[in-house]
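Fold it.
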Amino acid sequence: MDRQELERVLRETFDDAGAAAVVARQAGDMADGGQFDADFGGELTVETVVENLRDAPAEYSLAERWNWWLGALDISHGGYTRFSVRPDVDTQS
């Protein structure tokens, strides 16, 4: 997982620079952990992340989209909530 590429694509796609950095960091940590690879038989890619975040409700912020997707992963496979983005942390800095 190329964290810098993911951050760039998230900024461009969702227009949220602060959250893009946080989500890219969490996605990189998730990729490094190997659980996604084991659960889905393939590595986590920039395209996979962006595609799944686009499926979230349109009114959701980037952080909410990320947590929405992780919630679905956690329900189906377990162990993904540790990669959530805390909603009470200001990502606009």
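The CA atoms of residues 61 and 75 lie 21 Å apart.
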